[in-house]
Predict the 3D structure of the following.
Amino acid sequence: MGEKILEAGHTCVIVCAGDFALADIPFSPGKGDMCIAADGGYRYCRQLGMEPDLVIGDMDSLGEQLRSELEHWKEDTPEKVRILSPEKDDTDTLAAIKEGLAAGYRSFCLYGALGGRLEHTVANMQCLAYLKNHGAEGCIMDEGVMMTVIKNETICFPETMEGYLSLFSLWEKAEGVTIRGMKYLLKDAQVSHDFPIGISNEFIGERGEITVKNGMLLLIAAAYRQGIRFVR
């Protein structure tokens, strides 16, 4: 199981319509990154004073003024605005992810993907699994919270990580789960989707490591130090 930087290379940044603590979440897409506003995420981009590379969605969470603005923008630069039918299978976030995948990106960061309607939060967590199953890596970033999915691999955290780590099986069972360098340890264990044994582990100033040999786990790091990245 090789290790690689989660956000190595260029990243597709997706701004969703959930809660977005503008003052507290470091948000700075770099050169070569792609920024996509998913529906109401366009409002956050406006507040940040940035122009996304693409706005996509049915625009049901935008007010009349912003919808009118996008209609005019679409007339001038139609490649930057995709207005979808509200009757569709994909959520706006998933539609944005598919655009990023089609553009060749394999590293994704979702902002504003939590809060708001609970069903949208759950759907965005499922989008992390979609990315993993399509050969890409994804994370959800929020104030003091970072989420990702691992499948048949190992993920490592630096000694400087702080706070709590919880993990949940996204399959009926995840086999060969090993936790090293944290307060609560596991060795080659089985974690099921109906028993939350992996909740509220703690970083202890050591290099943490999570392995799953067969299965998919949702990892949630809470109260961690912003800016710290982990490796696979």
In short: The longest helix spans residues 118-133. The first strand starts at residue 12 and ends at 15. The CA atoms of residues 175 and 190 lie 5 Å apart.
